[in-house]
Specification:
Helices cover 76% and strands 0% of the residues. The chain has helices at residues 15-36, 40-68, 74-96, 103-131. Helix 1 (15-36) runs antiparallel to helix 2, helix 1 runs antiparallel to helix 4 and helix 3 (74-96) packs antiparallel against helix 4 (103-131). The protein has 135 residues and is mainly α. The longest helix is centred in the middle third of the chain and has 29 residues, at 40-68. It has four helices and no strands. The protein has one domain (15-131): Four Helix Bundle (Hemerythrin (Met), subunit A).
Length: 135
């Protein structure tokens, strides 16, 4: 059973954003699956690296869309992105210090952040982007 299940309420019908969010759900489920099998320490560094790469691509895309359409709540939305990046950097720092027992912390953070960010912050952005023809 999946730890975090993609649901239609998370879909925006903006393909690039939906696909990015589904990727994040995949990281969550991969980590949960590994934890369930006692293998989290074997994949946690890879998951954190994927999160770092994810933030570069996904946040850059969303921020480009927001800037190019003069999204009025850009600064607030970007602050949410910046907070995510700071937390992922903190996870990487812990791993670099040899603390590889952070799987539950990462898993919980990702599930809560994704649910909160998609259902609140991103949900406010979608009508604006669609008004500008972004699909």
């Amino acid at each position: 059973m999946a730890f975090f299940t993609w649901q239609n309420k998370f879909a925006f019908d903006i393909e690039s954003i939906d696909n990015d969010h589904k990727k994040l759900v995949g990281y969550i489920d991969d980590l949960y699956s590994a934890m369930s099998q006692g293998q989290a320490k074997n994949i946690i560094q890879g998951v954190v690296k994927e999160l770092i790469d994810y933030t570069r691509v996904h946040f850059r895309r969303e921020e480009f869309y927001m800037k190019s359409t003069n999204y009025p709540d850009f600064e607030s939305h970007k602050k949410a992105h910046d907070a995510f990046v700071e937390q992922v950097d903190a996870f990487e720092d812990k791993l670099n210090q040899g603390k590889d027992n952070i799987s539950i912390e990462v898993l919980t953070f990702l599930r809560e952040w994704l649910s909160e960010h998609i259902l609140n912050t991103d949900k406010k952005l979608v009508p604006h982007l669609k008004d500008y023809g972004i699909k």
